[in-house]
Amino acid sequence: MPEIVKGLKDVYLDTTEASFIDGQVGKLLYRGYNIHDLAEKSTFEEVIYLLLYGSLPTQQQLADFDTELRASRRIPDGIITVLEVMKDAHPMDALRTGISALAGYDVEEVADNSTEATIRKGIRLTAQGPTIVAAHHRLRQGLEPIAPNPELNHAGNFLYMMFGEVPDEETTGLLDVDFILHAEHGANASAFAARVTASTISDLHSAVVTGVGTLKGPAHGGAAEEVMKMSLEIGNPENAEEYARNHLESGGRIMGFGHRVYRAEDPRARHLRERARVLGEKKGEPRWFQILSHLEQNTMMPYRDRGICVNVDFFAGAIYYLLDIPDDLFISIFALGRIPGWTLQCVEQYQDNILIRPLLEYTGEMDLEYVPIEQRA
Questions:
Q1: Which pLDDT score, from 0 to 100, does residue 335 have?
Q2: Looking at domain 223-322, what is its CATH homologous superfamily?
Q3: Phi and psi torsions of 158, nearest 5°
C-alpha cells in the first residue's frame, strides 16, 4: 500500500535558492539574508531586486531598478474598464482578473518563459498589482482611479492611489516593512500552486493568477482579516479573556497562532508587533494592540509549549485597520507583497522543469458492470 502524505506535509518538492525556513527555531532567510536585517535595514524595492536577481544591488543598480518599477505602474484603459464592470466583486477577484487581462496587453513576451523575460514580466506585475487594487477600491466607492505618482516609492504610491493623499514617511515605512515580510516564503500553498502552473510550461501571468486564486482561500491568506474581526468583536482589552475562553471552549480557534512550518514564533511577527503598538498610540486607538497583547501573553501562552506560536498575520490586521484599509483588502495587501516571490518560484521551476504530477490512490469500487438505463432500478 503506498504511503499517503496528506497535504504533502514535510515533503520536499525540489531545491530552492529563494528562501530558507527553520521552523524549529523560527528562522527565515531570503537568498541567504536574515529577515530581521532586511526588515530593519532594507526597502521593499531592494528586496524585490534581491529575490529576482540573487544579490543585493549597488546604489546604481537599485536606482535603475527603481526607475524601471516606477515606469511600469500604469495599467491600460481596458483594464480600468474591466475593473469598472466588476466593481462590486471581492478585491481578490478583481486582482486575479486584472492580472489575467494584463496578459492580453503583454503579447510580445507573455509566452516567453526564459529567465530574463519572466523577471521582466514579474517586475511589471509587481508594479501594476497595486494600481489594480487601488483602482478597483476607488471604483467601488464611485470615485475615479488615481494615476500612479512617480515621485513616491512602491508602498507610498499604493497608499496615494488608494486615498488620494501623499502618506507620511512613517506610514509608508509601515507598509514597506509589511511588503518585505510577505515577499517570499518557500513552498506555501500559493507558491506551490504557481509552480504547478509553471511546470506545465504555462506563462507567468497564468501562474500568478493561480497564486492569487490560491491565496484567496481563508486557510492560506485570510488570517489577518479574521484576527481583526475577532478584535472588533472583543471590543476592549478587559473582554479579551472571557471572549477567548468561550471561543476556545466552543471549539473555535484564535486566529494568528500556529503555522504549518513554524513550531517557534514566526520571525516576521516581531517586526509588526512593536509597529502595531506605536501606530495604535499615534492614532489614539491603543486598545487593538492591547487586545492582541493580552491574547498573546495570557490566553495563548500555554500553547507555546505545543508549538502554537504567534505568526505574521496576528498583528498585520491591526496595522491595516489603523491605516484605514478595509478588511476585505487585507489579503490583497498580502498578494501585492508576494508577487516577487511567486515570480522567483516560477523562474526556478522553468529553469529545471519537470511536470508536477502526483498520484492519488483509488479507494472506490472496481470493475462494476454497466447496466443500461432502462434496466436500472
A1: 98
A2: Cytochrome P450-Terp, domain 2 (1.10.230.10)
A3: -60, -45
